[in-house]
Design a protein that fits this description.
Layout lengths: L20 H11 L15 H6 L6 H31 L3 H13 L4 H21 L4 H10 L7 H11 L4 H23 L4 H12 L2 H8 L12 H11 L9
């Protein structure tokens, strides 16, 4: 069932102060919040199956798994995010939609596709309501017309561009969001001290700048994903009869 948000608002919200460090910081905090209402709490990004099958069983193996996921995300979704951000800056809808299709086409399992389009659409709907008319709201209309799938990294790129933030900040939030999603899920799935989860998160975040530098010069054609263990775990999760998370 498709739920449409209706509102009488028809003007862009005043983004005064965005060019100040405080203005940028508060927008970064709001739209980078792990509690942003886009449904990320319902997904584990493979952690559930990894715990069930013993691939992840303590803080060290959790850190290794999260690190591998972040490396894969940077070279695939991260590349598309930067392309979409630059497409939004240049008012190039074709580049935005090409990046969107590139993300969707590289999701090998059903649940990953479900996750990215569900969260992407929710974020675009939120942007259309909270920010007002922008690249994300016009992209949302193309999603509704089935012209483009609506993947989450693209939504993040368009929202951060509309907020006047940088592509580096958009990339950082994407990577942080993935790591945060996985560590939060791990606390509900395994015997793990919440402080150890924060150590894993901090260590994972420390790699974001290097990951950005590694992929900043890549194009959509350079996007690549190779994570057979994660793909097998995702396939196992689809067939699971008992599970906590959608993904």
């Amino acid at each position: 069932m498709t739920i449409r948000i209706t509102t009488t608002r028809d003007t862009r919200i005043d983004l005064g102060g965005v060019n100040t460090r405080i203005g940028a910081a508060v927008r970064l905090l709001q739209f980078g919040d792990s509690l942003l209402p886009v449904g990320s709490f319902t997904f584990s990004n493979g952690i559930e199956s990894a715990v069930q099958l013993g691939v992840v069983h303590d803080a060290d193996t959790l850190g290794e798994f999260v690190h591998a996921a972040l490396q894969q995300a940077a070279g695939s979704d991260g590349v598309a995010l930067l392309a979409a951000f630059r497409g939004s800056t240049a008012c190039d809808d074709a580049l935005i939609d090409d990046a969107d299709h590139a993300v969707f086409n590289r999701k090998l399992n059903e649940e990953s596709r479900t996750m990215t389009v569900r969260m992407g659409r929710k974020l675009a709907e939120m942007a259309a309501y909270v920010i007002g008319p922008c690249a994300a709201s016009s992209w949302l209309e193309r999603i509704r017309a089935d012209a483009t799938p609506g993947c989450y990294p693209i939504a993040q790129a368009l929202v951060f561009c509309a907020l006047g933030l940088s592509e580096q900040e958009a990339f950082a939030v994407h990577q942080y969001g993935l790591a945060s999603m996985m560590t939060a899920a791990s606390l509900r799935l395994m015997k793990l001290h919440y402080l150890d989860a924060q150590v894993v998160l901090l260590e994972s975040n420390a790699r974001a700048e290097d990951d950005y530098r590694r992929i900043a010069g890549l194009s959509i054609e350079d996007m690549a994903v190779f994570s057979p263990v994660i793909d097998v775990l995702a396939a196992n999760h689809v067939r699971a009869t008992v599970r906590m998370f959608m993904n």
